Amino acid sequence: MNTVDQAIKLVKNWRRHKAVIHPRTVQFMYHWMRGTTTLPYPPLKLHLESTSVCNLRCPMCPQSLDAVKGDTGYIDMDLYRKIVDEASKFALEINLFFRGEPLLHRKLPELLRYGRSKGVRLHVNTNATILRESQARMLVEDGASKVTISFDGPDKAMYEIMRKGAKYEVTLQNVRQFLALVKEYRENGRPTPYTVMQVILPYDATQKGPNLPQHMRDLFADLPVDEWDPIWPHGWAGVMQENEVVEAQPYGENYHPCNWLWKSLAIYWDGRVASCCADFTADQLIGNLKTSSLMDVWNGPEMVKLRTLQVEGRYKEAPLCAGCDAVWQKDTPSWSLFDAIEKQIRPSSLPTGRLTSIAAPAAGEAHVSPHAAELGPQTVASIAAARNGFTGPISATGWKNGPAGMPSAN
Description:
Blueprint: H1 4-12, H2 23-34, E1 45-48, H3 77-87, E2 93-95, H4 108-117, E3 122-126, H5 133-141, E4 144-150, H6 156-162, H7 168-187, E5 194-200, H8 214-218, E6 227-231, E7 254-255, H9 260-263, E8 264-267, E9 272-274, E10 285-288, H10 294-298, H11 301-311, H12 319-322, E11 328-329, H13 333-342, H14 370-375, H15 377-387, E12 394-395, E13 398-399
Parallel strand pairs: 1-2, 1-8, 2-3, 3-4, 4-5, 5-6
Antiparallel strand pairs: 7-11, 8-9, 9-10, 12-13
């Protein structure tokens, strides 16, 4: 998430990201590359949590560690209206997703309709496990501009490992039914959401990037999947980096400030604002929208401080950033192109790239949240395994430990 490769992808995949292809996108890119800490523009997009409640406990997600720790709830309409009213003046997109499953919010149709009435593009991420026909029609008819379906794993066995608590056949039927509805509406000339199929695949060091098997594409060959988005698990700001249940992609070799602080805000269901969407445990709060405006938080002292720490290479002074993979870019053609352009913009005194003074965390050094630290970093992965019914880690080819590493029957 939030890598240079993804920033390049944003520009290339203009249909998916047309909500953010805007003059302010150029401002964002310039000031991110320049290292500006007080920004002359508002956030491009928001992650606005409709609910923190999730019906699954996927082993690559901090929910599997109970990272939310009882901080569960649903955004109320008065707070939602306040935030959307402010955001409608400048936000190019609002994603109604953060830590939970948006379809669990009973007033999601009302949330969508209100956002649409304000001219806001709304994005819904869903695991699709409860995406029945009525919810499918609601997403299409009530104003979702984009729907991302998380359908992880290329087959039944891996899907039910990656999406603990879900049934492959049920979700597959839900997704096909939703896409069939989208197809029907499009054939009749009616507006529909842009559809994205996001697939988290086990990390494979032998591949340059996540490779989606053709047979998975074939499952939806006759249906309107506008974009496939295969990704590898990431470390969720270090909390899951050393998780031996599902291997996260490793840190890159090149240091660079994360683009999140220059483009987005993440808002909990109760109005508190997190520094980024990897903060499941409220480790790094920067404001509260019950008492402040979006712009007050965006250029407030806490946000400016975080930008400054990253620009100066002092990211380890921010606990959530200390172990995060988003500040470490891999050596790729996209990075080389970005680095060459940035050298024309960024002051040479600011640290980026391969540095002798800054290095990615070594094994055992990744920051874990205070919640995980209470347990000890060496036990985090085993607790995730126990809570998800696992006794062995997942590799790109399956269970490393053979039959003894298979999930328990219950």
